[in-house]
Design goal:
13 helices; globular; 376 residues; alpha+beta; Aminopeptidase; 13-stranded mixed β-sheet
Length: 376
Amino acid sequence: MALSITPVASKADLRAFIELPYRLHASSPQWVPPLRIERRLFLDRRFNAYFSHGLAQLFLARRDGRVVGRISAQVDLAFNRHQGNRWGNFGFLELDDDPEVMAALTRAAADWLRARGCDRMVGPMDFSINDEAGVLIEGFDRDPMIKQPWHPPSYQRLCEDPAGGGLVKAMDLLMWELEIADRSGVLPILFELADKAESEHGVVLRKWSRRRMRAEMDRFAEIYNSAWKDNWHFVPYSKKDLDQHAQEAQLVFDRHWFMMAERGGEAVAAAITVPDLNQVLKKMNGRLLPFGWVHFLRKGKIMTRVRVGFLGVKPEFQHTGIAAKLYVEHFDMARDTPQSWGEMGWILETNDAMNRGMEAMGGRVVKRYRVYERML
């Protein structure tokens, strides 16, 4: 049966690209259907800030006219400028359990990237590493949280099979489970350090303001660009990135969980933790109508867990105990809200300090996502 790979070039192609995972994972109880309208907006160059500094092409695999796979190829020009690289990325990987389809998809992505001067292909990332990233290789029995992908076990095999993707590991991303309503497993030193952050170092913790969300994002970016600058695959946020993130944050904002630490008016640390909207999306089944909107309006009563997406401290303030104070504040908020547990990450497998911090809080690794690469 003939296999073809073609660029997404029409509205019908885009619809097929979006719809494929709904067919592939329809029988998977863990998979959470995203809102179709959100996916259309995310892939639209007019609305996604990624396209202000990146290029992308979507591809579909068809066998005798039936869609059997999809992939994207993209180049983040801002990342390459900042890192002095010529890397390209692939993402949005979905396909039937078929090595031939995997080989054809990755070959199409690699050819597109090579034609644009790239010397390495890294992914999957949808489109960037701070969106959904990696292939799930541990934790298949757990529901994904917001901005986490879910894949069946076959995807790792397809990526690594020489007859399939022929990809090699670049980095693993870890998700840690934290029972934030339970302090019994936490090392006592954490609370001692937290108590000293303000009394000895003058660092004060406050919550974000919804009304000043865009300005808060600028302060967060100042911390992010300092605290994450040495991380693998780091790129600073652009103004348009922050504009988009501020808009998205309005949909998931809960003042209990958005935290900022300051000293003398300077933002020195922050945490962005969001109640898990995926619990709501699962009930909505990918649609607002006819009754999906009812679940969205009731989201405050549905969401019982959180994802700690970002928690960072400027390097010059890492001795102040403010990270411990942010951790302890999460325990306090779990006492005061319906959210009693959550996951933190992803965290790079090479980030020893953060992974030790998770161990100190009584956490355990419950999911592992693998980012792959191929030299071009």
